[in-house]
Amino acid sequence: MRWAIALLVASCSSGASPTHPTPHPLAIDAGAVAEPVSDRECDALFDHALAIGLAEQRAAKPAELVATADAQAQLRADLHSELAACRALPRDAYRCALAAPTLDALAACQVKLSSSTSNTSVAPGGILPPAAPVAP
Questions:
Q1: What domain count does the chain have?
Q2: Which residues make Cβ contacts (< 8 Å) with residue 103, sequence separation at least 6?
Q3: What would the pLDDT profile of 85-120 be if each residue is shown by its tens digit?
Q4: Is 74 part of any domain?
Q5: Is residue 73 part of a domain?
Q6: Can you give 50-99 as a three-state secondary structure string?
Q7: 85, 98 Cβ separation under 8 angstroms
Q8: Full-prediction pTM beyond 0.85?
């Protein structure tokens, strides 16, 4: 998803400090099929992502380089354009992202798909590249 990348781009903005959202607990029934992530849950995730991104900015940058209220509003609108991608998140990825304490941790929660069999995360163990030919 691009929304985590958008958060990193926001670190180049300047301005005021936001309010931090309070994450809400999720009721989980282990025997039930997980419901898709709702718009309200995506808004909570976006709020969380903005809050941790801005906290990182405040910790690492002078106050005049922290995102302004206008920049935050624009970033929120940009994140909202990723609503469909957020709704498609698996529940585990959503819970991971909502619990992430940093943007790096949030980015690590994203589902990474690969069609490459050279990628060790998808190739069965023990598969090695072909040996180099030996001169006769």
A1: 1
A2: 4, 7, 8, 49, 52, 53, 56
A3: 999 999 999 999 999 999 999 999 986 655 555 555
A4: yes
A5: yes
A6: HHHHHHHHHHHCCHHHCCCHHHHHHHHHHHHCCHHHHHCCCHHHHHHHHH
A7: no
A8: no
